[in-house]
Amino acid sequence: AQSVTQLDSHVSVSEGTPVLLRCNYSSSYSPSLFWYVQHPNKGLQLLLKYTSAATLVKGINGFEAEFKKSETSFHLTKPSAHMSDAAEYFCVVTIISNFGNEKLTFGTGTRLTIIP
Amino acid sequence: DTAVSQTPKYLVTQMGNDKSIKCEQNLGHDTMYWYKQDSKKFLKIMFSYNNKELIINETVPNRFSPKSPDKAHLNLHINSLELGDSAVYFCASSQEVSGTGGPYNEQFFGPGTRLTVL
Q1: Is A100 in contact with B101 (CB distance < 8 Å)?
Q2: What's chain B's average pLDDT?
Q3: Contact assessment for residue B89 and residue B113, using Cβ atoms and an 8 Å cutoff
Q4: In this predicted structure, what is the pLDDT of residue B64?
């Protein structure tokens, strides 16, 4: 069965320091993987996606993620945190629905807090 | 211009009532979705329509009935509302990659509708 696990429910970093949000997945086939961000009281916005092209994926706002098949991981990183990065981050994997289509399955989210 | 819009933004109602949430996208996408986000921020897909046809229907009570009058609209009607229906409901849309059936392309989300059932 396909699933996605976000290892930390809450991460706090100081402004200007690196960010690491961890995500592991399990899938019986080669999935597509995404990171979405949700700012308070807002909808979700795509940060980046992996669809079997380059394993290092660059996204918006300086974020990037590396797909590591051997570790079944897709961790999200940013070299230097900014106050505006404070938000909820979701790791997402495609799985097969009961209709035979692919659908997105969301992790439980990681709340990123930036300390001034 | 708002890409995916939902109305209303907030909805407060009593148990047992029937209510609808509307969603419209002006992106020309052919696939639309409804998601439910609970109080712990857990997001789960409920339904998906492609060109007005239902393609994903998760284990959702049949009190929930989506309706897609055209490709640009996907409304959600909820009968006999229960306390457990309180959540934020997100509409989304995407352009499905032709012939694959997969949501490889980015999904664009609406701002959400916060439903509170008293």
Answers
A1: yes
A2: 88
A3: yes
A4: 94
- For residues B11, B12, B18, B23, the Cα torsion angle rounded to the nearest 10 degrees is 10
- The DSSP-derived string for chain B is --SEEEE-SEEEE-TT--EEEEEEE-S--SEEEEEEE-TT--EEEEEEEETTEEEEE-S--TTEEEEEEETTEEEEEE-S--GGG-EEEEEEEE-PPTTT----SPPEE---EEEEE-
Evaluate if residue B71 carries a pLDDT over 60.
Answer: yes
Least confident interval from A38-52, A59-73, B9-23, B90-104 = B90-104
- Asked whether B57 and B33 are in contact (CB, 8 A), the reply is no
Does residue B83 register a pLDDT over 70? Answer: yes
Interface of A with B (CB under 8 A): 32, 38, 41-46, 49, 51, 88, 90, 94, 97-106, 108-109
Say how far apart CA A6 and CA A10 lie, in whole Å: 10
Q: Which of left, alpha, beta for A29 (phi over 0: left; psi -120 to 50: alpha)? A: beta
Most A-contacting residue of B4, B25, B43, B46 (CB-CB within 10 A), to test interface: B43
